[in-house]
């Protein structure tokens, strides 16, 4: 079997979002990138540098008013966009490069430059709403990529699989009435942000295009894999996407200080293998994976490495 061509997007711009001792801090991607560099597989990765997302890309998902309000914050000011989401002098540049990374990753996959890609970005994105920052997230990186694929790059349909321990309320909301974009999430329940019950399934022509799998605290790998096999993979195959996005949060790891689940590092390889198999069946193997949460540095770095190795197979 040929190894898939896998790209990695990372940029020092992500370090400019200075959050101090906040759990979502620059060490997450800095430590993980250093860890990846020490892995033998690193030499096989295609390294790509992001650019900043354009206004047109950001406003595929976010309101003009929200975008302008961030631009209007004086560059020397530190503010809180919401109680969990600090914003300082380098934050806009970091957030624009995180969204731009997913935009470039999506272009690269659609154009066939590589089969799969991991975007080692921050700030994360899946809680960000059209007009609001929320839960450590400023721009909804995955949602911008998915919307770009369908509205600018000619994809017919895409699927998003969100494995972060939290429900991706912002992503669900962005595509709740969009029949072309399937959103599937496995998440701890009940838990922040409170959305993501099984009864939220989409509306209008998109009924059935939101698939929520709420899982109780303490859920183990076996139950995650069963849910993926029985619910997520059939939904993805039935949707016939041209490419699959992964909102790759690693905060369902047993060591994570925020999540309450029991996944191990290898669990992320097992989960990723299943998503790769689904992608091979329906999406010519094409995957854009994007970092969301994951707050224990050693668990995060090892889990990202296991995830990327599985993407390469
Ligand atoms: Zn999370």
Structure write-up:
This protein has 313 residues and is an alpha/beta fold. It has one domain: Histone deacetylase domain (Arginase, Chain A, 3-Layer(aba) Sandwich). 36% of the residues lie in helices and 15% in strands. It has nine helices and ten strands. The strands form two sheets. It has an eight-stranded parallel β-sheet, sandwiched between helices. Strands 3-4 form a two-stranded antiparallel ribbon. Helix 6 links the parallel strand 6 (158-162) and strand 7. The longest helix is centred in the first third of the chain and has 20 residues, at 91-110. The mean pLDDT is 97. Residues 164-166, 249, 251, 292-293 line the site of zinc ion.
Task: Write the topology of this structure.
Blueprint: E1 6-9, H1 27-37, E2 46-48, H2 55-58, H3 64-71, E3 79-82, E4 85-87, H4 91-110, E5 116-119, H5 141-151, E6 158-162, H6 169-174, E7 181-188, E8 210-215, H7 221-239, E9 243-248, H8 265-282, E10 287-291, H9 297-312
Parallel strand pairs: 1-2, 1-5, 5-10, 6-7, 6-9, 7-8, 9-10
Antiparallel strand pairs: 3-4
Helix pairs in contact: 1-9, 4-5, 7-8, 8-9
The structure holds zinc ion (ZN).
Q: Which tags fit this structure?
A:
eight-stranded parallel β-sheet, 313 residues, 36% helix, binds zinc ion, Arginase, Chain A, alpha/beta
Weakly predicted, low-confidence segments: none
The arrangement of helices and strands along the chain is EHEHHEEHEHEHEEHEHEH
Largest sheet: 8 strands, parallel
Distance between the termini: 8 Å
CATH class: Alpha Beta
Bound molecules: zinc ion
